[in-house]
Design brief:
Shape: elongated
Number of helices: 2
Helix content: 55-70%
Radius of gyration: 19 Å
Order of helices and strands: HHEE
Length: 98
């Protein structure tokens, strides 16, 4: 019965990672594009209203999140090639020996 619990626990982690990276990051990027159009206003929007600064701020925040996730993924891949791993023992990620 313990094996079934371990399998469900592993399946849950894979599902969460798949949703976050497989659908979550593209959704955040798409929301950033939509927020950028809202921030630009004019011909970028359907109703041709003036631009809103809040849209530009939200777009920058969304793009920063996506960029940070991509950078963290590349860092993890490169670190494993050098025999290290990414550790989150502190607030920010650090490279430590395996």
């Amino acid at each position: 019965m313990n094996n079934f619990g371990f399998a469900l626990e592993g399946a849950w982690k894979v599902l969460a990672a798949g949703l976050l990276l497989g659908a979550g990051l593209p959704a955040i990027f798409a929301f950033g594009i939509r927020a950028l159009a809202y921030g630009q206003g004019g011909d970028a929007e359907i109703n041709h209203e003036a631009g809103h600064p809040v849209g530009k701020v939200l777009a920058i925040l969304c793009f920063a999140i996506v960029l940070a996730a991509v950078a963290l993924g590349i860092t993890t891949i490169v670190a494993s090639g050098f025999g290290q791993k990414v550790s989150f023992e502190h607030i920010y990620p650090m490279l430590v020996d395996k």
